[in-house]
Amino acid sequence: MPFAWVTLSSLVAVPLAMYLENGMALQPGTQIGLGYGRHWVERTTLLTAMMPYLLNLIAAYWFVSPDGSTRWAAFWATLIAVAHVVAPVALAVMSGVAAPNGQHVVDWQTLRFVLWFQDIEMLLLGVAVWVAFGRFVGNSAGSAASHVAYYAEA
């Protein structure tokens, strides 16, 4: 369930974040004291538009599960969720520019494609880890059962 949550919440959070990001007010560089660019956006506005990514962190809820494999799944799903929050925030913070008026802005024309590609990568990473985890947990449970059956015959 934690991997399902990360995947399904990403399917909701990513389009919602993209919608909010497309609604941000863009400023031309000349208006904020920068000599180039027409698609500058305040960094705080961008970070606010990224808030739907926090939905992924609910995967930590499964840490209280009595099943050990579910707790392990919650651990890996929560790591993916944290990465899905930290990576775009880090990109936004590192690519920010301090305008002469003291305002921190981001070149949205360039950054949006990097962020959106990263969103798709994080979604695919979650699905890949989900499949790998299911495969390895399924194999270990099956191999333990086969060992018990083997020794029961002997």
Topology diagram in text:
Blueprint: H1 2-22, H2 29-32, E1 40-42, H3 43-49, H4 68-94, E2 97-98, E3 104-107, H5 108-153
Antiparallel strand pairs: 1-3, 2-3
What does this structure look like?
The chain has 154 residues and is mainly alpha-helical. It has one domain. 68% of the residues lie in helices and 6% in strands. The chain has helices at residues 2-22, 29-32, 43-49, 68-94, 108-153, and strands at 40-42, 97-98, 104-107. A three-stranded antiparallel β-sheet has the order 1-3-2. A hairpin with a 5-residue loop joins strand 2 and strand 3. Helix 1 packs antiparallel against helix 5. The longest helix has 46 residues, at 108-153. The chain is elongated, with a radius of gyration of 21 Å. The two termini are 38 Å apart.
Radius of gyration (Å): 21 Å
By DSSP (H or I, 4+ residues per run), the number of helices equals 5
The biggest sheet amounts to:
3 strands, antiparallel
**Low-confidence runs (pLDDT<50, min 5 residues)?**
141-152
Determine the oligomeric state from the structure: single chain
The side-by-side strand order for the widest beta sheet comes to: 1-3-2
Question: Beta-sheet strand percentage?
Answer: 5-15%
Please give the alpha-carbon distance between the first and last residues. 38 Å
Mean of all residue-level pLDDT scores? 81
Helix content: 55-70%
Number of domains: 1
- How many strand elements? 3
Helix and strand pattern: HHEHHEEH
Given helix and strand content, the structural type is mainly alpha
Which term fits the overall shape?
elongated
